[in-house]
Amino acid sequence: MPDGNGKDGAIRAIDAFRGARESSVPTTRLEEVRKRSRKFREQMLSGKKALFYKTCELVRVPYPTRYAFANVYTQRPVSSPVIHITNRLFVIQFQAITGIKTLLFSPSDVLANADTRYFKRLGAQKLAKLPPGMLKTAAQKLVAPQGPTVVEWLAKIGLRPEEVDYLSYDHLHTQDVRNWLGGDGRAPVFPNAKLLIMRAEWESAQGLLPPQSDWYCPNGTRGIDPKRVILLDDDVMLGEGVALVRTPGHTMGNHSLVAHTDDGLLVTSENGVSLDNYAPQVSRIHAVRSYAKKLALEVILNGNTQESSVEQYISMVMEKEIAGPSIRSPELPNIVPSSEFTPWWLFRGISASAFTPTRVIGDLEFGSLQRR
Ligand SMILES: [Zn+2]
Predict the structure, then answer these.
(1) pLDDT confidence of residue 126
(2) Which residues contact 327 (CB under 8 A, 6 or more apart)?
């Protein structure tokens, strides 16, 4: 069996949210989670910061607008059926009692992930519409345009693959981790890295129902040495200034990254794909704003599978409360979606028609890279 919590000196289970979702009354669960989130925020802000935090753009992927803003477009026409989301890698370093540790959050293996059924179907339809110069690689055929790979980004930053201690994903949709960790007889790209994942997500990926398996890369976790996987049963602090907190709903094993930076607490997951999901009532997208106001919604889900939409709603409020207001735009929360709605030149005409995110986060970097 893979390791559980606490067998690694850098990982400490926390009880900030334990039992917060026990009530069968949704409003009680929501308010309890909100209260605990505010307290947790204060605790984290009183602690130390992560040593290094950098986002790196990997690839832009076409994504249905109806998923990006769940239910908004079920009763009205959508001006753009597809948006682009930018998938990001997060390179994070933190101090632990066992030394300085390096975490890669959301390191998508873009080429390998292209095997995901959803991408395959999408690729077949979109391929013909792309300019020939863009069809350089299999991945680009599906999702163009593609930026540097995870390994190329690390080389740019100045990190060697063997310096990576941990990999983590908010959930495993589209992810193939076999090249990274060495599954199915492959040599691992990251020879010392362990995967940090909630037990619920890991176990769920071993027996998916059809609505789920459209989004999970087939065999993406096959043959991984259990010693390379740390199954988490709790919310955890990673050394100082970094936490992984359970945010079920989008998938039931979903978790979010919380990082203490010079910009405050930055919270990351794919529960929403833009700040418009988290602050829909001040969104510049008219349909999103009016739908949120009509229904008095605090958040709008990114809903491609919605394993539990009520829990996802609560989880997004939780993320928003932990993050607090953005320093630069206080009307928006300090959220950094791992896949973010980004205008793209191909959709310039649509961008000009008000279907554009209220604010794009773009690239972020805080602290300084620590070398061993
Ligand atoms: Zn997902």
Answers:
(1) 52
(2) 263, 264, 334
Report the alpha-carbon distance of residue 153 to residue 91 in Å, rounded.
9
Distance 244 CA to ligand 1 centre (A): 17
d(CA 139, ligand 1 centre) in Å? 19
Predicted confidence (pLDDT) at residue 258 exceeds the cutoff of 60? yes
* Residue, of 132 and 273, whose pLDDT is higher: 273
Say how far apart CA 364 and CA 354 lie, in whole Å: 25
The Cα 338–Cα 134 span in angstroms is 24
Query: Alpha-carbon distance 126 to 144, whole Å?
Result: 10
- pLDDT for 2 equals 43
**159 — pLDDT class (breaks 50, 70, 90):** very high
Say if residues 199 and 233 touch (Cβ distance below 8 Å): yes
Range 19-28 contact pairs with CB under 8 angstroms and sequence separation of 24 or more: 21/311, 21/314, 26/310, 26/314
> For helices 26-45 and 309-323, what crossing angle results, to 10°?
30
pLDDT the model gives residue 123: 60
Report the top-level CATH class of 11-367.
alpha beta
Going from the Cα of 94 to the center of ligand 1, the distance in angstroms, rounded, reads 26
What separation in Å is there between the alpha carbon of 156 and the centre of ligand 1? 28
Domain ranges of the chain: 11-367
